[in-house]
Design a protein that fits this description.
The structure holds 3 protein chains of 3 kinds.
Chain A lengths: L2 E4 L23 E6 L5 H16 L3 E6 L9 H6 L5 E3 L5
Parallel strand pairs in A: 2-3, 2-4
Chain B lengths: L5 H10 L19 H19 L3
Chain C lengths: L6 E4 L2 H10 L13 H10 L7 E5 L4 E4 H11 L6 H11 L6 H6 L5 E7 L2 H5 L13 H18 L20 E3 L10 H4 L7 E8 L3 E4 L6 H18 L7 E5 L1 H9 L4 H11 L1 E3 L19 E3 L7 E5 L7 E5 L10 E5 L11
Parallel strand pairs in C: 4-5, 8-11
Antiparallel strand pairs in C: 2-3, 4-6, 6-13, 7-12, 8-12, 9-10
The chains are: A alpha/beta, B mainly alpha, C alpha+beta.
C-alpha cells in the first residue's frame, strides 16, 4: 500500500540578515556590550571592558544588560546599537 | 559563545539565514568561573573576536 | 482543498516510519502517516484555510500555518475533532507573554502543560478522572503529543539543536489534562481566568514535572493545603526561587474536604500565596550556601500574586494525593488562556 505523505516542516527560507561592514580599526571606537546578566557575566565583561580600552585603544564601552535572559534583547537596547561602532554579545551559561 | 552553546549558535545562524556567521568560542561555564578564569575567557574572546570585527 | 506542502510517495507504512525518523521528524515513537485526506479532514473540521496564519514565532520569524499544524496533529494520532484544540493551543503558545522560544529552548527543560476546559472535553471523551496526569484517554494523549511534534518540526525544537534541555521530563511526550468540571462545585480554571462557562478553552503553561504529595490524615483545608504549600516551598529551595505560575492538581478525595468547608479556588489561592514562601537563607540547608551572601533575610514567595495559581480539579475518585506543577522558571513565561472557537472573521476554505 503506497502513501502520499506531507512534509511536516516549514519548508520556507527564513529572513536573511546581512553582515555589517567590518571596522578598519578598534582605535577610538565605541563598543556596546549586551549581557544576559547571568552569574559571572559582570566579571567577564568588566575584564573585557578594561582590555579593550587599555590594550586596543577602544574609546568608549557601553554596557547593557537584557531585562530577561531568556528573551531577545529589549527594544530600547537594540535601538541604541546605531550609536555604537560594534556590539559584543553572546550565548552562555 | 560558551563552548556548550556553540552548536546552538551555529543552529541559530542557519535558521536566521546567515549560515556562515562566525563567532568566538570561550570556555564553559561562566556562572561558576573564578575571576582569573573570567579574565582568561575575556582574553580569549578578544583574541578570537578581534579578527571578526576588524578588517585584516 | 489546496495543500501547499511538499509530498513524498512512499511504498509502505514501515518505509514512512523510517523516512520520518531519519529526518528527525518524530518524537521517537511511530507516527500516523500524514496523508492529504487526513490533513484536509482536520482543516475542514476546524473550518481553517490551509494557508491561515495562526501566528509567527517572533524570535526566529517562523510563520505557523494551519496546514502545518494539521500535518503534525495527524502524525500524533489526532482525529479531526481533536484539531481545534491543537490549533488553539499553539495559538496560545504564540502569544508574546508565553515566551515560546525561551520556554522550549532553555536548559531548564520544561514541557507545555495544557489544561482543557468546557463542553469540548465531553465531545472528545477527554477524561479528567483516573490517571489524569498519565495516559488517561485518547484525546489528551494525542493533543499533547501533537503539540510536541509541532515544536519539533515547526520550530526545530530537537535535543541538542534548539532544545538545550539538560534533562527535560516525560511531559515532553504529552502533557495534557482535562479538568473534571462535572464532579466539583468549583469554577473551572478557564472560568477563574475570565472565560464564560459555555465556551471551551485551553490554558497553556511552561511547566516542570508534577510533584506528587499525599495527605490522607486530615479533613481540614488548612492542613491539606499546607502539604501543597510545603511542596512549593521545596521547589523554591531545591529548584528555583523565582515566582511564577504554579498549578495544583486536586483530585476528588481532597477536593471534597475543601468543598465541604466551602473553600473556593480563590480561597485556596489566597492561602497558598501566604504559605508558599521561603527565606533566602534556607538555600544554605540544601547545598546552595554560596549564593545566600548577605541577603539571607530576603523573603521569596512562590507567586507574585494569588492569581498566578492555577487550581485544577482532576484525578481519580480515591486517593488523598495531589500534585504541584512548578513553572519552568519564575515568571519568564506566563500561563495563557484562550477560548476555542471558529474564526468568525475568516472566509470558509475555498473548494
Amino acid at each position: 500500500m503506497t502513501f502520499r505523505v506531507l512534509d511536516p516542516t516549514p519548508e520556507k527560507a527564513p529572513p536573511v540578515g546581512q553582515l555589517a561592514p567590518r571596522l578598519a580599526t578598534l582605535q577610538g571606537k565605541t563598543i556596546g556590550f549586551i549581557s544576559n546578566g547571568k552569574e559571572g557575566t559582570k566579571g567577564f565583561f568588566a575584564h573585557l571592558d578594561r582590555m579593550l580600552r587599555e590594550e586596543h585603544g577602544v574609546a568608549k564601552v557601553v554596557s547593557r544588560t537584557k531585562s530577561n535572559y531568556s528573551a531577545p534583547v529589549d527594544a530600547h537596547i537594540a535601538a541604541e546599537i546605531r550609536n555604537w561602532d560594534a556590539v559584543i554579545s553572546g550565548i552562555g551559561d | 559563545m560558551t563552548s556548550r552553546f556553540a552548536s546552538a549558535a551555529e543552529m541559530m545562524s542557519r535558521v536566521l539565514g546567515m549560515p556562515d556567521y562566525r563567532f568566538a568560542t570561550i570556555g564553559h561555564p561562566v556562572s561558576s568561573a573564578t575571576d582569573d578564569d573570567l579574565k582568561a575567557m575575556a582574553r580569549m574572546a578578544i583574541e578570537q573576536g578581534r579578527p571578526l570585527l576588524v578588517k585584516p | 482543498m489546496h495543500l501547499a506542502s511538499r509530498t513524498y510517495d512512499i511504498d509502505d507504512f514501515w518505509a514512512v516510519q523510517e523516512l520520518f525518523h531519519a529526518n528527525g521528524w518524530t518524537d521517537g515513537l511511530p507516527i500516523v502517516p500524514p496523508t492529504q485526506e487526513a490533513v484536509s479532514a482536520c482543516l475542514e473540521w476546524a473550518m481553517a484555510d490551509p494557508a491561515q496564519l495562526v501566528g509567527i514565532e517572533p524570535v526566529r520569524g517562523v510563520a505557523i500555518t494551519a496546514e502545518k499544524l494539521a500535518i503534525n496533529a495527524v502524525m500524533a494520532g489526532c482525529l479531526p475533532m481533536h484539531f481545534p484544540v491543537v490549533l488553539t493551543t499553539f495559538a496560545a503558545m504564540l502569544r508574546p507573554d508565553f515566551l515560546l522560544h525561551g520556554a522550549t529552548a532553555s536548559t531548564g527543560g520544561c514541557a507545555v502543560l495544557i489544561v482543557v476546559n468546557g463542553p469540548i472535553r465531553l465531545e472528545l471523551g477527554a477524561a479528567g478522572a483516573f490517571n489524569a496526569l498519565g495516559n488517561s484517554d485518547r484525546a489528551t494523549a494525542v493533543i499533547g503529543r501533537a503539540i510536541r511534534l509541532c515544536l519539533i518540526n515547526l520550530m526545530d525544537v530537537r535535543p541538542g539543536a534548539i532544545d538545550r534541555s539538560t534533562l527535560g521530563h516525560p511531559g515532553k511526550f504529552s502533557y495534557c489534562v482535562a479538568e473534571d468540571e462535572e464532579d466539583t462545585t468549583w469554577l473551572s480554571l478557564a472560568e477563574q481566568r475570565g472565560i464564560p462557562k459555555e465556551a471551551s478553552a485551553v490554558t497553556v503553561m511552561a511547566a516542570g514535572a508534577p510533584r506528587q504529595i499525599m495527605n490522607e490524615w486530615t479533613t481540614r483545608p488548612e492542613e491539606i493545603l499546607e502539604t501543597f504549600a510545603a511542596e512549593m516551598r521545596a521547589n523554591l529551595r531545591h529548584y528555583s526561587i523565582h515566582p511564577g505560575n504554579y498549578a495544583l492538581i486536586i483530585p476528588k478525595q481532597l477536593r471534597e474536604h475543601l468543598q465541604a468547608a466551602k473553600w473556593s479556588k480563590t480561597d485556596i489561592a489566597n492561602f497558598i500565596h501566604e504559605r508558599a514562601r521561603i527565606h533566602r537563607r534556607e538555600w544554605a540547608e540544601v547545598g546552595k550556601g554560596a549564593v545566600v551572601r548577605d541577603r539571607g533575610d530576603s523573603v521569596y514567595p512562590a507567586m507574585e500574586s494569588p492569581d498566578q495559581l492555577l487550581v485544577v480539579a482532576a484525578g481519580g475518585p480515591a486517593g488523598g494525593f495531589g500534585a504541584v506543577i512548578p513553572p519552568w522558571l519564575g515568571n519568564k513565561s506566563h500561563a495563557v488562556t484562550v477560548p476555542i472557537g471558529a474564526c468568525i472573521d475568516c472566509e470558509p476554505p475555498k473548494k
